[in-house]
Design brief:
By secondary structure, the protein is α+β, with helices and mostly antiparallel strands. The chain is built from 16 helices and 18 strands. The structure holds flavin-adenine dinucleotide and zinc ion.
Length: about 475
């Protein structure tokens, strides 16, 4: 029987897409990768996923899992051979159950992140993962990329937010690891192996997630600063004073703010002209379990001290939820404005906090010497040591020139990161974009361990081949 016909028998004809209907699944969010596929298949249950994988294993058809297709490294886009099947998890979108006493929620992989946040909110709980793509990314994609976002400082990334997984293995078996246990020392941490594996070891079909107490109040402020050193000192001061109550510490440079002003003019900086000209801005957020007033007062006191000491030049504390949202919109508009502005050479790096200020200063200087006129665009989750360090054309380069030199530019940035013990991917993953870079910076031993895991779990090599690891 023809392979596509066999798939139709398994999941229903309307859930096997080809031609125009398949097109949106074959290009990534940044429109940087375009692929071809045998078809896009949309199973609706874990059993259907398992039977599709068994059919693929028997026919040795490569499988590219896809959730919301918002990934930034081309991990969910097939290659252009047309041999692979795109397996969309979007129809697996049920919230299976909430266990309020255990503070957990079990959801299927295709649930949209925002739906999970809202569902948790309805039972007076918080699911803290938060990122700009939350309206369309899925929890399966978040798990497969070990997503981070803006609340990692307080709650950790996906790995820390997950207690159990259900996975369809590369031979089509179902592993039910949906345990809601906070302690479980029964051997290898399979859960953590699948998290962050970008679909190269198996298909995540469901997860048991940790819920947290919904904070009673939040206080948000936007700060203007003179230097990256001042931002780091402010962070150290805030972390010391607030400890776990510090839930967000996001950095944005003046170039990013200029892009937001250009493409989203309704989002304006809350400062006077002088402060708006400063080179660095920080969005800081504090959670509080007493009251709105208490949160505001704590933030005011600590920021007041920082202003007196000269770390911060100016600060605006939101006095309403609407104002707080407006401050977050400024931060969230940065990647969107950057997308409209055109292509950049992007990096998603992390470095030890103790090396952050010198990294930012040295890299800017070395870039300027090597590629005079290029313009770094720096923003990200400073409290996690994670920056989106993107290099753009500035006024002297055009896009083609910049992209021609992208390999050299990235090598320069990544060499800097590597030299101080940092990572070339803090939260977006490897996908197709960084597979060669990964090979360059990981040790021979680490790569050998990773390859033996891949061979053991996916001996036919059908799970998202060509992503993350290359031979
Ligand atoms: P997809 O893009 O569909 O897939 C991503 C990868 O996971 C692919 O390799 C795919 O094969 C694999 N995969 C998907 N589902 C499964 C599954 N069920 N089983 C196995 N493998 C699977 N990320 C952050 O960490 N922090 C941020 O702050 C952040 N901000 C972003 C802002 C914007 C505007 C955008 C567009 C993206 C941002 N991202 C961020 C990237 C982030 O990785 C994704 O948004 C999200 O985690 C991916 O989810 P998805 O469902 O769209 O996955
Ligand atoms: Zn980010």
């Amino acid at each position: 029987m023809n392979f596509l016909h066999a798939l139709s028998e398994l999941v229903g004809k309307t859930n096997v897409l080809t031609g125009k209907a398949a097109a949106p699944y074959l290009v990534d969010w940044r429109e940087r990768y375009h692929g071809q596929a045998l078809a896009v298949v949309r199973p609706g249950t874990t059993d259907e996923v398992a039977s599709v994988i068994r059919a693929c294993a028997a026919a040795e058809v490569p499988v590219v899992p896809q959730g919301g297709n918002t990934g930034l490294c081309g991990g969910a886009t097939p290659d252009d051979s047309g041999r692979a099947l795109v397996l969309s998890l979007q129809r697996l979108n049920r919230v299976r159950y909430i266990d309020q006493h255990n503070n957990t929620m079990t959801v299927e992989a295709g649930c949209v992140l925002q739906t999970i946040q809202e569902t948790a909110g309805r039972v007076d709980r918080l699911f803290p993962l938060s990122l700009t793509a939350e309206g369309s990314c899925t929890i399966g994609g978040n798990l497969a990329t070990n997503a981070g976002g803006t609340q990692v400082l307080r709650y950790g990334s996906m790995r820390e937010l997950t207690l159990g997984l259900e996975v369809v293995t590369a031979d089509g078996a179902i592993w039910d690891g949906l345990r809601g246990l906070r302690k479980d020392n029964t051997g290898y941490a399979l859960r953590d192996l699948f998290i962050g594996s970008e679909g190269t070891l198996g298909i995540i079909t469901a997860a048991t997630l940790k819920l947290h107490a919904l904070p009673l109040a939040r206080a948000t402020a936007f700060l203007a600063l003179e230097s990256i050193e001042a931002a780091m000192t402010t962070f150290a001061h805030a972390r010391h004073r607030f400890d776990a109550a510090l839930t967000g510490f996001e950095l944005i440079d003046a170039t990013c703010m200029a892009l937001v002003a250009e493409y989203f003019p309704r989002h304006t900086l809350p400062f006077d002209r002088e402060s708006a000209k400063l080179p660095w801005f920080v969005l800081i957020e504090l959670s509080d379990n007493e009251s709105e007033t208490h949160a505001q007062q704590r933030l005011e006191t600590v920021l007041g001290q920082a202003i007196e000491s000269g770390f911060i030049k100016d600060a605006v504390i939101a006095s309403s939820i609407a104002q707080s949202k407006a401050l977050w919109q400024l931060r969230e508009s940065v990647p969107l404005a950057e997308k409209v502005a055109g292509k950049a050479v992007k990096h998603d790096i992390s470095v030890p906090l103790s090396r952050m200020a010198s990294f930012v200063r040295d890299t800017r200087q070395i870039l300027e010497q090597a590629f005079p006129g290029v313009c770094p665009l720096v923003f990200g989750h400073l409290g996690d040591g994670n920056l989106h360090y993107n290099v753009t054309t500035g006024t002297r380069w055009d896009q083609d020139q910049l992209l021609e030199r992208q390999h050299e530019i990235s090598t320069l940035v990544h060499d800097q990161v590597h030299a101080i013990g940092g990572s070339i991917s803090a939260e977006h993953g490897i996908g197709q974009l960084k597979r060669t870079t990964l090979t360059h910076y990981k040790s021979v031993t680490e790569l050998a361990l990773m390859r033996s895991l891949k061979r053991a779990l996916d001996p036919r090599g059908i799970m998202n081949p060509g992503k993350l690891l290359i031979d």
